[in-house]
Amino acid sequence: MRTAARLTTRALPWLVGLAAGVLALGPALGPGYVLRYDMVFVPDLSPATVLAGADGFPRAIPSDAVVAALSLVLPGDLVQSLALLVVFAVGGAGAFRLSVRLVGGASGRGRAPGAVLSAGAAAGVLYVWNPFVAERLLLGQWAVLLGYAGLPWVLWAVVRLGSGRPGAGLAGVVVALVPAAVGGFSSVVLSALTAGPQALTGPRRWRNAGLFVLGLVLVSLPWLAPSLAAGAAGAVTDPAGVEAFAARSDTPFGTVGSLALLGGVWNAGAVPPGYGEPVTATARLLLCAAAVAGWAWWLRRFRPAVGVGLTVSAAAGFGVALLGVSAPGRELLAALIGVWPGFGPLRDGQLFLAPLALVQALGAGAVVLWLLGAPPSTGERWPDGRRNGRRGPDGGAAGEPSRGTGVPLWRAVSVVLVALAPVVVLPGLLWGAGGRLAPVEYPPGWRAAQEAVAADDRPGAVLVLPWSAYRGPEWSGAPVVVLDPATKLFDRRTLWNDDLSVGTPDGGRVVVTGEDARAREVARLLDPDPATGLPGDALLSDPDALAELLGGLGVRHVVVSAPVENQFWSGAESLSVVVESADMTLLRVDDQHINADKEPFPGLEVTSGLVTVGAIIWSMARSGSSLGFQRPRPRTERDARKEIPK
Questions:
Q1: Are 144 and 136 in contact, with CB atoms under 8 Å apart?
Q2: By C-alpha distance, which of 308, 314, 299 is closest to 375?
Q3: 147 and 45 housed in the same domain
Q4: 528 pLDDT higher than 90
């Protein structure tokens, strides 16, 4: 019986996360590729494609590198399904286990009381089923969500830093940061915001903070080292993004109210269906208010280990999100970015609501504990080894159910409602966000073009036309905006328009200049027509001159990944048609025009990646765990209770 209970305690958090993931993703887990905004998975993603990268900030290197490595042994669509499901499983299990750990109802070996498990389940569901997750998922930012899923694990690893040796503590932090390492830049920033204040609380704060920073650096090397090596030339951030990425209202409660509900994303196309309706928005508001009240009650009465640190993180993140709401705040952000491009991440303020989402999740768990009459003082050992001696309101040990009758029916029903409320008040996330996350197959012409480029041993980049990064491929079924998949399809350097055009609430548009310096040079020489995305009229009328220009830019292949009326390559002697289909044309620039050397081996990226992988392997071996909730170790503190053999 004890073994079965122990297995249930360990498996239940993961089952809660997996169940939420299956309900949310639905058809997205089937065959085919889900293409939406930044979420672009392609068949047989090549490691060479990832390492070729671009001249801008290499924020996508970690996630793309992991996808490319997995694609060597698994089909690309299966890799995507696993990546999306891992977000829900890791996030739900992390919030569940963090709630249980903070309550102190389970040491990691034994059985947790039913009330504690109920609270953990409520926390796990709310953490992965909220507007923040829904909107980031509909934006296609799966890598950011992977880092978000790891936040509870990182926070607990930081809590444990002060109770062990530095080596063991660092190993635990690095293991917990694995999701952030894969997620990349934004994920590491969120991890620093969520757990940084916690590292500065309690004893040994400076040692703990130093170890935490060291862990962040170790998992950031794949993108951090190339960024530092690029210097000022590679660090370009357009201040126009402040207005484009500022939080916006998606509920009847205005922008501030939308942010408090964990919504307010800048892109109206990423709002889940039905979310902004008055009834569902009001229900969501009541749920958030109850969760925050539960967190406040927990803080006031029981002072959980992460109480101060996580509250500071949530308040700071909410403050960053508010900066883009007012004109003075946007001016301040633009000025900061003008001084140092490193302030660029602050443009997308809604992203920094992640700590508030964790607060609300844990608060929902506290509400369940209150409803069950089991406040977080179960008489079990706390994480520091002490037993809680507080008395409950009936004179019994706090956390023990009252003797006599069991839990009243109304309390049990209320617990079920709290646990299921996130799904009820956000039905737009159900089953692939109402069909918005529907998988599609790449047309045969795309696969033929991919194979043709891979078979060509002549060096040179691939130019992607039309010169528009985000488009709606006709073959994708339902209308959807997505980053052109041709930018990741080929096993070499790709030149594409990384500018971003964003609509504003007043009907205008803001163009955020891209970061790839070589792409900007291509745009200057091609002078593309804004309406068609094809080269300017002078070059279209003389395709041989265009071929000579492209060859001088080091372009070997030109991909036209959409139907075009003007087939400018017709009759050209210097542009050979390799693949031609309804929605994909692959052209090859003749050898005589090519002025391209083989791409240099990306030694810095590979070396920094190997260091990070080595640090992760060491940390897993050192901690004896696959994530941040490591196996318990004997306590040696003075207040630890010694067990005397009988």
A1: yes
A2: 299
A3: yes
A4: yes
Q: Is residue 6 in some structural domain?
A: no
Predicted pLDDT at 464: 96
pLDDT of res. 245: 93
pLDDT at residue 399 greater than cutoff 50: no
Count other Cβ atoms within 10 Å, centred on residue 224. Answer: 18
DSSP structural state of residue 129: S
Residues 381 and 429 occupy one common structural domain? yes
Residue 402 pLDDT level (bands cut at 50, 70, 90): very low
**Please, what is the angle between helix 142-149 and helix 185-199, to 10°?**
20
Question: By the 8 A CB rule, do 602 and 559 touch?
Answer: no
Q: Locate all alpha helices (DSSP H) within 236-277, ordered by sequence.
A: 241-244, 254-260
Secondary structure element (H or E) that encloses residue 325, with its range: none
How far is the C-alpha of 327 from the C-alpha of 342, rounded, in Å? 21
**Closest of 643, 210, 144, 134 to residue 426, by C-alpha:** 134
| Tokens 């991890």, residue located | 191
Residues 415, 505 within the same domain: no
pLDDT higher than threshold 70 for residue 401: no
Which residue in this structure is represented by tokens 């609380």? 201
Look at residues 611, 641, 631, 634 and name the one whose alpha carbon lies nearest to residue 181.
Answer: 611
How is residue 557 annotated by DSSP?
E
What predicted TM-score, i.e. pTM, was given to this entire model? Answer: 0.91
Q: Which residues constitute the domain of residue 484?
A: 444-593
Sequence letter at residue 216: L
Rounded CA-CA distance 377/400 in Å is 8
In the structure encoding, which two tokens stand for residue 228, read together? 């530092």
